[in-house]
Amino acid sequence: MRSALCIISALLLLCIVRCEERCDGQQWRCDDGQCINSQDRCDGVINCSDKSDETIETCISNTCPKIAFRCAYGACVDQAAECDGKPDCPDNSDEMSNRCPSIINAAFKQGDCHSWQFKCESKECISADKLCNGQKDCKDGSDEIIEHCAAFKCPKFAFRCGYGACISDQYKCDGKKDCVDGSDENDILCKTSKRK
Fold this sequence. Notes:
Blueprint lengths: L1 H21 L4 E3 L5 E3 L18 H4 L8 E3 L5 E3 L22 H7 L9 E3 L5 E3 L18 H4 L8 E3 L5 E3 L18 H9 L1
Antiparallel strand pairs: 1-2, 3-4, 5-6, 7-8
């Protein structure tokens, strides 16, 4: 029995080594060792069996061309995907854009809040300028969730958190989590930033 386990372990190790050897310069290695075409990383389609090609960690520093829609976590999809009624981003952020009729209608349902306020899911009202700023201002944190922040367009010198909120670019990789999801302190992002 012990020798059978050793053989299985050796075969698994051999498979992992061979998988790593197969990736060439035109490919990207998934966390599980699988190789995919580099162009398939952060394209809105899950290609890795472990889904590592479409994560915040992998895509947060991704830059999209002007003709593409940027998913909240960083992937780039066809601009026509925005508000087309089907999720093209794995996080569904293309259907949560502030251009989508359902989001526009929801924005006007403020109830007891003033027009300059945001109504938290916990029913409290906060100033609208506190929405998606990287800090939980609603008691329930509903001002910092993808459903509300995916539609945000960050100003030029801002960093976009993995769920869509905007923080000052100077807070990126400063050793302190300024985004609720901590995406501003992502290891891959910060290693890339330090090299520049």
